[in-house]
Amino acid sequence: MKYAARIEYDGREFCGWQRQKHSPSVQENVEKALSSVANHPIEIVCAGRTDAGVHGVGQIVHFDSDAERTIRSWVMGGNANLSKSISIVWLRPVSDKFHARFSALSRRYRYVICNRDVRPSFLAWRTTWEYRPLDVVLMQQAAQHLVGEHDFSSYRAVACQAKSPIRTVHRVEVSRQNEMVFIDIEANAFLHHMVRNIAGVLMAIGCGEQQSRWAGEVLAHKDRRMGGVTAHPSGLYFMGVKYPDEFEIPRVENSSLVW
Q1: What are phi and psi of 117, to 5 degrees?
Q2: What value does the CA radius of gyration of the chain take, rounded to a whole number of Å?
Q3: Which of 8, 17, 30, 121 has its CA 20 to 30 A from that of 209?
Q4: DSSP assignment of 129-143, as one string?
Q5: Which residues are catalytic?
Q6: Res. 119 pLDDT band, cuts 50 70 90
Q7: How far apart (Å, rounded) are the C-alpha atoms in residues 78 and 243?
Q8: Are 167 and 194 spatial neighbours (Cβ–Cβ below 8 Å)?
Q9: 58-75 pLDDT, tens per residue?
């Protein structure tokens, strides 16, 4: 039987999603928890790997198991064995054709900025702090240079291992809610550090360091050295994944957990 599950996590305790020998990862924790329920080793595949310190609201995974367990047993038993920073939100059987990564049509991220004079306290590891006033209108204008299919070499990490830098950004929306500024991005897929590098460029434009056209100029260079600072991981959230309707995977709307 193949199962899909939605995983939610606070990334600050982990070295990222992917299993690592030297540090605790989200993948390792979830696999151990599900293996305890199944009474056999479980390996999971995720929709998109996240870096150290990055959070997940709508991470989707799949795994196979021949263990006979109820859905409630999988969810409640899995959560009982998980770190308090990780939760299995739901789990359901899916078609053998479903693949958490390769079946995805698009993925969504949200970048959250606390924009005020004084640094935040309890939001310190869940947002990025920017003390300079950000012009959301300019940031939104700049972001539109990135919509469409482009070579995002200037916006990916130098160590990015993706075979191609071509990605299609479906939408970028910059908005404000009181002291919080949000950058919402949906694309077919993302490169390593792509969202954080986009956030860094938009923040530089928003605070007046650069003009709005700079976002497009950076894109045109196709050279990471021409880009801005990589924004801190604490403000980044993996929000959700869109799949073909045939798989009946619930779509995650903007969660109250991330305003």
Answers
A1: -65, -40
A2: 19
A3: 121
A4: EE-SPP-HHHHHHHH
A5: 51
A6: very high
A7: 24
A8: yes
A9: 999 999 999 999 999 999
CB atoms within 10 A of CB 228: 21
Query: For the chain, how many helices (H) and strands (E)?
Result: 5, 10
Q: Say if residue 255's pLDDT is above 70.
A: no
Q: What are phi and psi of 167, to 5 degrees?
A: -140, 155
Give the residue-averaged pLDDT of 104-126: 95
| pLDDT attached to residue 228 | 84
Cβ contact 171:147 at 8 Å = yes
**Contact indicator for 252, 106 with CB cutoff of 8 Å:** no
Cβ proximity of 38 and 64 under 8 Å: no
Give CA–CA dist 174/176, Å, rounded: 7
Q: Show the domains of the chain with their CATH numbers.
A: 2-103 (3.30.70.580), 106-238 (3.30.70.660)
> What single letter denotes the amino acid at residue 214?
W
